[in-house]
Amino acid sequence: MPVGLGPLPVLHPVPGFRLGIASAGIKRVGRKDVVVMEAAEGSTIAGVFTQNAFCAAPVTLCRQRMGSTPRYLLVNTGNANAGTGKPGMVAAERTCEALAELVGVKSEQILPFSTGVIGELLPADKIIPVLPAALENLSEDNWAVAAEGIMTTDTQPKGCSRQIQIAGQTVTITGTSKGAGMIRPNMATMLGYVATDAPVAQPVLQALLREAADLSFNRITIDGDTSTNDSCMLVATGQAAIAPIDSTEAAGYAELAAAIKEVLLVLAQAIVRDGEGATKFVTVQVNGGGNRNECLDVAYAVAHSPLIKTALFASDPNWGRILAAVGYAGVPNLDVEKIDVYLDDVCITRQGGRAPEYVEEQGARVMAQEEITIRIELGRGACSETLWTTDLSHEYVRINAEYRT
Amino acid sequence: MPVGLGPLPVLHPVPGFRLGIASAGIKRVGRKDVVVMEAAEGSTIAGVFTQNAFCAAPVTLCRQRMGSTPRYLLVNTGNANAGTGKPGMVAAERTCEALAELVGVKSEQILPFSTGVIGELLPADKIIPVLPAALENLSEDNWAVAAEGIMTTDTQPKGCSRQIQIAGQTVTITGTSKGAGMIRPNMATMLGYVATDAPVAQPVLQALLREAADLSFNRITIDGDTSTNDSCMLVATGQAAIAPIDSTEAAGYAELAAAIKEVLLVLAQAIVRDGEGATKFVTVQVNGGGNRNECLDVAYAVAHSPLIKTALFASDPNWGRILAAVGYAGVPNLDVEKIDVYLDDVCITRQGGRAPEYVEEQGARVMAQEEITIRIELGRGACSETLWTTDLSHEYVRINAEYRT
Fold it and tell me: What is the top-level taxon of the source organism (chains A, B) (predicted)?
């Protein structure tokens, strides 16, 4: 059961961005597992991809092709096409060539994305025959169906949509994401697709995506496992009737950037809320660090500790395990007597020891909630970092002992 | 059920080293939870301790006192006396003072050790009254009872004993260890005590312990959580009738060092075999690294991945998850096309992709075993590192959701 993740909200269509879904039966017959996304001519596209050295064939192709003018995104689930060597590259290229021929663009203008089982060759011969059906299905109104089409172990489709006013014109930002396990994105996420009709120059769009991903997809972790296929794409179709945004000083940039960051954050948090076996949505906030890295080191140590994660699952305010994780996070010359730890607003540890006024019932009350903030004050400087994560439950073990990633 | 851990072997007494057990009812009434160890006058003692910044009060005291000539080790379970601030230090000092008075040594000659729940004050008033009983119980033959006395979530007592010949004389090395969770020792382990009757100068003994711990206790991980209380002590009573070992060139040093390393390795591996919820004993061997650090980074990434650990639990030869972990381990400029991965002798991945000759049944056969070696060949250099770890089972979650560390 996802934590605090309601039904899919209204996802406004983005003028100039169409989505089409088809069923290739890659892992299961009848499953909608192929999504084609089309960005109108003149769109700009930005992307960030996994830093995993074993990146999948489609990620390699995407990286090569970001320099061209991509027009189509071809997504499949059920197969990650990772760890598949040369044959995997050939299979990915074949699907792109087939789509390019059908729509009359160059193969380099197709960006492929795969997610699912690692180490099995992409069944191009299943995907190619259903591409005409996906194209026939293309519509600006298909975000909700596409959100379902990209799911793997997700229990719910994920999406977010915002409309803002720039120079009196309505500008739309809509996105979808997927992922529930093998989640510790590094520069990107499992899969995320966001489109806007704002006209944004590609370098501006790319810088904005990198910044937004750093504050959202790159700040979530479920199991600390960085996927081989993480990709997040941001498309600007330019069909809103506003002046081109060609720099971060341009009119409308600030409003657009804020809205895009919000959409990415909601999408990233949705992945955590639907984390494999998650029963808690946990915010880990580290304040008072001397630099961002030490804040992140502490936050990840807490977010990845199996002992803290099982205590969260048990709703046990086991603050000793939090102190232990802070202590082994590797912060140089850490003065433990300056450290305070809070569960929501309850101070459980002051100056490195149990807070004198703390009584266990207060901690137990917070831990019983579905949404919990662990706040750690390091007392070393002015830097802060925030991560979002889940607990570790029996269900996580069951899912991952049974599912072949 | 521990993996491949039989009943406690014969633990030979070490002349000059006596152990006494008592019951203070720290966590449960009737439980043997206090152990006093006495090193005969003239013994040398070496120790290594946790690098966790939130180290426990007894660890702080031990560090301060290693410079003196310690004679007694005072161990309690049921309470870690960590995260307890000044009052924790006072409580630890009080127990030491009480023991010192009873045996007629200085308080600085007592080394305290605690393990159990973090964040609760050590109940000195329960421990002090039972010290006379522990002293009355002192005997060189008490290793097996002491091995039980230091257990927490351990399901079996752990011990190892070797006898070697040096210059025609029998020299004995006997040790015990405890720990099953919060195990990723850094410079030491949860608790380990090893004694020998060889006469070894303290600096030689300390260097030997550090080297041996690095190859044993510092190469095991269960959950990646470095404890606040890790301590490993090596005592040399000097009662064997051989020439003093005052340098690494001295006669007998090589044989003694080899035997001590073996004892530490057996004790460290025993902790993994009895890891919380463990159903597998897993050796992770990384060869062909450019340096030791990158071998360790890859080995720990594999050993800590919840996805690999759940696949091990499920006996699923899910090599894609292994590749993904190698890929995100942070090795700079990793050439994935040089990487081979083996499960025991079965090559599952060659040059970064599925080995052409590999069939799933071979991998499944290895994964069905209780003891498995994951071997990763990086093809970058001549360095190797080996770790030992466990799988991640439902039982791990149950134990840690229920137990208050």
Answer: Bacteria
Ligand-binding annotation for B386, yes or no, is no
Give residue A404's pLDDT band: very low, low, confident or very high (50, 70, 90): low
**Which chain B residue shows the shortest CA-CA distance from A311?**
B401
Q: How many interface pairs between A and B have CB atoms less than 8 angstroms apart?
A: 209
Mean pLDDT of A129-154: 94
The catalytic position among B50, B172, B189, B390 is B189
Q: How far apart are CA A298 and CA A385, in angstroms?
A: 9
Chain B residues with CB under 8 Å of A304 CB are 224, 304
User: What is the overall mean pLDDT for chain B?
Assistant: 91
Tell me the shortest Cα–Cα distance from A30 to chain B, in angstroms.
26
Residue B324: which of A54, A396, A404 has the nearest Cβ?
A54
Question: What is the reported pLDDT for B79?
Answer: 92
Contacts of B317 in chain A (CB under 8 A): none
Residue from the list A83, A327, A334 with its beta carbon closest to the beta carbon of B320: A83
Scanning every residue of chain A, which has its alpha carbon at the shortest distance from the alpha carbon of B335? A53
* Contact at CB, A327 and B228, closer than 8 angstroms: yes
Residue of chain B minimizing CA distance to A50 = B328
Q: What residue type is assigned to position A29 of the chain?
A: V
User: How large is the ipTM?
Assistant: 0.81
For chain B, domains (ranges, CATH) are 17-273 (3.60.70.12), 281-402 (3.10.20.340)
Res A346 pLDDT > 80: yes
Is A400 labelled a binding residue? yes
**DSSP bridge pairs for A350:** A353
